[in-house]
Amino acid sequence: MLQQSLRHLDQAYQRFFKGQGQYPERKKKGRSRDAAVYVRTGFKWMEDPKRPGTGLITLAKQSQPLDIRWSRALPAGTVPVRLSVTRDRAGRYFVSTLVEERIAPLPAVFVAESREPKAVGLDLGLASLVTLDDGTKLDHPRLLKRYAEKLARLQRELHKKVKGSRNRAKVRQRIVRLYALIGDVRRDMLDKLTTRLVRENQVLVVEDLSVVTLLRAARGRGRRRKAKLNQAILDAGWGELLRQLRYKCEWYGRTLVIVDRFFPSTRRCSTCHAKGPKMDVSVRTWACAECGVVHDRDVNAAVNIRDEGMRLYWLVAAGPPPGRKAPTVIRASELEECLLAA
Ligand SMILES: [Zn+2]
Q: Where's the Cas12f1-like TNB domain (predicted)?
């Protein structure tokens, strides 16, 4: 239990450093800055009874409390367990606090009028960032596309600059900052999506990055640099999505299934399971030669991913010992070994 809460603390702390946690001021990212961390004994906290969630913070060895402009109140009645004071390049100080919140698992969600846990399959792609098995599509925000173009331009610029020159360093710095910005936008967007998905579903199924990489890598003929860039954007999005789903599933008592073994999620007909022909990336819809059902390429893939995930889920959930809760994360590649060992 202690381990668990420590892990939560650590995750929360990581989130806070990535700009998602609670902190009084928004930090500028992608710049070097000085930081000092204060643990419980290193500061005094006095909550303001008139404005709960805000209050006076006095650092050790200081007589005066810090003059803080609160950008956001802490949950009322909580005590910060860790404090971080940073200074950015412009010389501004920021105070970030970490509070320990008790997160209760959500009640289990079942498919209406059945004992089947509600599940969702996610397909990640370049046409849509995420496609769900119910047909919902989350597009890459236009903002990200614009950033991607800018990034490509900067990278071309970088290649033209003399190695070791100051101009090259400048361009490099701009690329670093742009990456940080893209990361922020994506994290915010994915945060909303993953929260909703974890609330509405009991089992969440994703394909592993290595499988996705395998499939996309074969496509970028003739446009290697752009393909590489797309790949990087995709990888970053997928990594972030997986990271968020992992900790949210743990927090709320859900199960994340990672289908990390190759299986033809795109080519298989999700209705009759017949294997279709190889398809070019440009093909967005196709009709199954066996049963005639017309599929949206990504939705079909998401359905296959969900079904494969549920197959694995039942292998574990129905396995020994009866009545035990399904684990937070089920990985296909680890499953075989664990079933063999049992
Ligand atoms: Zn079919």
A: 238-305
